[in-house]
Amino acid sequence: MHAPSNLTLLPPLARQTDSKILFVVLDGLGGVLGAEPTALQRAACPNLDALAAESALGRTIPIADGITAGSGPGHFSLFGYDPVEVDVGRGLLEALGLGVDVTGRDVAIRGNYCTLDAEGRLLDRRAGRMATELAAPLADLLNEAIGRIEDVDVTVHAGLQYRFAAVFRGPGLDGHVADTDPQVEGVPPVPARALVPEASKMARIADAFAAAAREVLGDRDAANGVILRGISGRPSMPTYAEVAKLRPVCIAAYPAYRGVAHLLGMTVRDEIPSTASIADQVTVLEQTWKDEHDFYFLHVKKTDSHGEDGNEQAKAAVIEEFDALLPRIRALEPDVIVITGDHSTPGPMAGHSWHPVPSLLWGPWSEPDAGSVFDEEACHAGRLGARLPATALLRLALANADKLAKFGA
Amino acid sequence: MHAPSNLTLLPPLARQTDSKILFVVLDGLGGVLGAEPTALQRAACPNLDALAAESALGRTIPIADGITAGSGPGHFSLFGYDPVEVDVGRGLLEALGLGVDVTGRDVAIRGNYCTLDAEGRLLDRRAGRMATELAAPLADLLNEAIGRIEDVDVTVHAGLQYRFAAVFRGPGLDGHVADTDPQVEGVPPVPARALVPEASKMARIADAFAAAAREVLGDRDAANGVILRGISGRPSMPTYAEVAKLRPVCIAAYPAYRGVAHLLGMTVRDEIPSTASIADQVTVLEQTWKDEHDFYFLHVKKTDSHGEDGNEQAKAAVIEEFDALLPRIRALEPDVIVITGDHSTPGPMAGHSWHPVPSLLWGPWSEPDAGSVFDEEACHAGRLGARLPATALLRLALANADKLAKFGA
User: Do B4 and A4 touch (CB under 8 A)?
Assistant: First the structure.
């Protein structure tokens, strides 16, 4: 028996109703159980604990046991799209996240500015993690100098720090091209390599772009070249409306998460600045609540950022910040609440990990657990199970919101 | 996330032995855990509790987390056929769901009464979602007026609201016929189209049925025509004998469950009236026990019926009625006993639900749990797990009955 794909299972069952699902992603929420308490265990979060007392808890697996999810796949999984089935490239996610209007025929690349020596060998794959405001003008330089390669329009879009997205629009492009990033320093970037015959033109264009960028930036001491990663075309996948008949809205401050939302056809509240606090986001949630949406995706970034930095205290503080806002959120009276993460980011590991993610489902028929704590231990012992596939959360939320018809008369 | 299909896994391993499996389905057995006790928790069932003390318990998932099973898919899953993989046609499921005893040679259709204009164009595909009690007499009209087309007997069965099932019984019928539903209004229903050459007769009969229905209902302002959907014959799937080398027998009082049994090639004890009590069914079980069967499917309907009515006390009373008969059943000395449900039907929800189903496995090597209660909580905590795929129950029953050879020499 296969765990069936939501993409085939849900469309015939999904039905539109007025009930509202609030889907909160505390990015990188999970920790690792061991000698030290996790950030979630450190955090004093009376409101989350009170909600947990009325909720079913569990730990969710974004992809598979032992597999660490990136942010993109982690989110796709939460939204019910099996990331193994739906292979979304990082380049596309980056471009979407930067608000670029990527069409179905474009190919997108996630680039790094890098520092090369005179012989073209990599001295620093991230150009010293240069500041966003220093990197931004480089995109303008590249756009002015390049613009078009053969019959392909090229646009470069500044990202965070040393990152950029490049979008290639023209006939005959296929995104199945391997990265030019050798993953180590001391060697030159590798030439772009077509993974399928149809992608040979795109590989040629990618190499021409890297050469042109080196031409434009080559006089600089640092950030004088580019490496190209996550080269990808738009995957063929149904929208959220098509899968689940939802009218979803995304309330996220960071571009990458808006990118995922754009790709799924969600309405995206683009007015939220990347500096928005969680409270600012909750204000937008409140303003949007009366709109004709039935799925509210609220994304909190900084749990992950602090986990990546190994700062469990700061991560716990973000959880507490969210906890303090929970009464405002509950006052909106959503019909179903999910609180989860897209993956774990344990502080002691200072990076994403494969550990199951604490998850909470509140709804009229959620079968609440007996406890009143929201942490990894309680979730491990919870009703949703110690290793629920993350793709199941959406189904349970839809079921609790009465948005799924019976399978078979 | 994958689990192997029984349809490929079992045939090379299954072996016929004299051991007897008793497979009891208390329809809609499960409840929802929450503030109120479930029917199973309310019921005083000392014999089930005593059996539970010698059994492994668990909660089973018929299809997938969050997906509510209809009776047909719920039973297919219990019998080891993944309902997503087997793809039983909607027409067939509708007919089974309405209690029609469908044989392996019939074709069933799920129909809508619709409203057509004078030119035969669809004004309303669902006839204003007419009330069930208004639609029911239309089935009688159609049965009186039509009855037979060419050499095919036609019976129409009232469903919920604007829905009905029509069953076609006669030689040379094949269900591979496309819907006549154009999915939009303002155009006429499309003619039935055979998807394979063998289905041309059925397509012709379907069109003749739609024309005859238009003749009968045409004077009405609304619900003056039909559209035909989910046209389906017996799905191409192996029989129970082919999958598991079993010689199964069905002891069910309600037609729909006999229908499922017929489809799987079970022997069906047709002499049982639909008014039979559980005790009457146990008498048939006793009479059949010495026959050459090794799999006894005993179906109890009224747990579900009372759950659908929201009557937890009556549902609990049915469980108690079964419990009182358990000593007679155990006196037959089955080698393996399974007691489960095809889905949950919590009284507070007054309908089927997605909640995992309490399940019990008694056998020589079942690994009994420590407790001595049979209810949702004990099953949640039981050895079989909180969310065992229902398709696994058959494998565990066969294994305990020594009916499965080793996988790999």
Answer: no
CB < 8 Å to A65, chain B: none
Interchain CB distance below 8 Å, B64 and A395? yes
Which among A216, A233, A250 is the end of a domain? A233
**pLDDT tens per residue across span A156-200:** 999 989 999 999 999 999 999 999 999 899 999 999 999 999 999
Q: Which residues contact A224 (CB under 8 A, 6 or more apart)?
A: A114, A115, A116, A214, A217, A218
Same domain, B141 and B283: no
Both structure tokens of B9: 């896994």
b/e sequence A334-361, b meaning 16+ C-beta within 10 Å: bbbbbbbbbbbbbbebeebbbbbbbbbb
Rounded distance between C-alpha atoms, residue A300 and residue A240, angstroms: 21
Q: What average pLDDT does range A371-379 have in this prediction?
A: 96
- Taking CB atoms and an 8 Å limit, are B66 and A399 in contact across chains? yes
ipTM of the modeled complex: 0.84
Convert the pLDDT of each residue in B337-357 to its tens digit: 999 999 999 999 999 999 999
Chain B residue numbers touching A404 (CB-CB < 8 A)? 66-68, 354
Distance in Å, alpha carbon of B382 to nearest chain A alpha carbon: 12
Which of A384, A368, A291, A278 has its CA nearest to residue A332? A291
Residue numbers of A between 130 and 159 with CB closer than 8 Å to B: none
Looking at the complex, does the CB of residue A389 fall below 8 Å from at least one CB of chain B? Answer: yes
Nearest alpha-carbon partner for A116 in A231, A215, A230, A229? A215
The CATH number of residue B82's host domain is 3.40.720.10
Q: Which residue segment(s) compose the domain that A303 sits in?
A: 6-88+237-400
Q: pLDDT for A49-76, tens place per residue?
A: 999 999 999 999 999 999 999 888 899 9
Q: Quick one: B242 and B391 in the same domain?
A: yes
Instruction: Tell me if chain A has a CB within 8 Å of the CB of B85.
Output: yes
